[in-house]
Amino acid sequence: MIRDQETLNMLLDSVSRFVREQLVPAEAEVSETDEIPPRLVSQMRELGLFGLAIPEEYGGLDLTMEEEVLFAFEIAKTSPAFRSLIGTNNGIGAQGLVIDGTDEQRRKYLPRMASGEIIGSFALTEPEAGSDAASLRTTAVRDGNDYVLNGTKRFITNAPEASIFTVMARTDPEMKGGSAISAFIVEKDTPGLSLGKVDKKMGQRGAHTCDVIFENCRVPAENLIGGREGIGFKTAMKVLDKGRLHISAVSVGVAERMLDDALRYAMDRKQFGQPIADFQLIQAMLADSKAEIYAARCMVIDAARRRDAGENVSTQASCCKLFATEMCGRVADRAVQIHGGAGYVSDYAIERFYRDVRLFRIYEGTTQIQQLVIARNMIREAQG
Ligand code: COS
Predict the structure, then answer these.
(1) Taking the model in full, what pTM does it have?
(2) Does residue 178 have its Cβ closer than 6 Å to ligand 1?
């Protein structure tokens, strides 16, 4: 759903200009320094990018899902690290509160997240609980007016930058499965919370992940999201439904950028006396990529519209994540192939993008988890 086309166009135009004029020229620097320059972070704040998906009453722009994916198509036309910085505030780091938080919890944290004053982060994954998220072991034991958290979270995006964490922990350590899991807001400075060393990743330099460790970390009971125990796993799944759509849109945007780079290169590069773009085998790679990007774009917009209409889009979000991220991987591979030897050296952006986009098929649920969700939902529906 698009609420006001004119306002949205203004936002998309300014984001597109920001990407072209500020972010693309800074890509190499971010890759070398592993840091987004503070001046760009300030500009992101000024543009309101930290609060896109946060409700207006808490200072955000409250974009609908359709508007958000259109935004993601644009912001993704540059290094994914830029999107990653604002991604958790709009997505998994804030949506637990937006979807299931109490009014007080929302009032306390969302305005500062919307303004970009604080960064939120989502702590679900653990060393022994990745795809099998419901088996997580971090415990939260009630003690008076507090919960005492113990456990380790792994690969937590934006943890080094975060001021608050949405943490999924087991409030009934004896009970297995998702129904014993609760979600908490934990502030960075809470005694007993510490961070591991920043992970050395394959790509997405400038975006950081690390362990978040809880050792007898006392969290006030008022920080239990929604004020109820046992709903945290469902909160996490609902957050991921939305996150998966967002990552699908990002995959489309990055794929468009990579294809654009490949097309320019193919039109410029001459072999056998002519631009390689004139060769049909190169054209096949360009055309397959174009068609697949178009398919993914249409899927993402359709699923976003359905979500805006109030439909349960768990299946569609997984279909999009599965198709769009795998498509993005294929486009990255073809784009390197079109660049030839030049695609394997870091003088061209494609070498970096090839590594950056590998993550899309893994985080917020691997391709295999998306297959599992889709098929399970199909079987459930067929069983009535
Ligand atoms: N929305 C709301 N509720 C949901 C839901 C969704 N999208 N998906 C599942 N649930 C509910 C189920 O209805 C079920 O509720 P009941 O106990 O009332 O029946 C409960 O949550 C448990 O669901 P399920 O039985 O499907 O859980 P499983 O442990 O079998 O598996 C998967 C769930 C595998 C889908 C889940 O663990 C998953 O998504 N794993 C990947 C984790 C991930 O994406 N990690 C990335 C980390 S964040 S970067």
Answers:
(1) 0.96
(2) yes
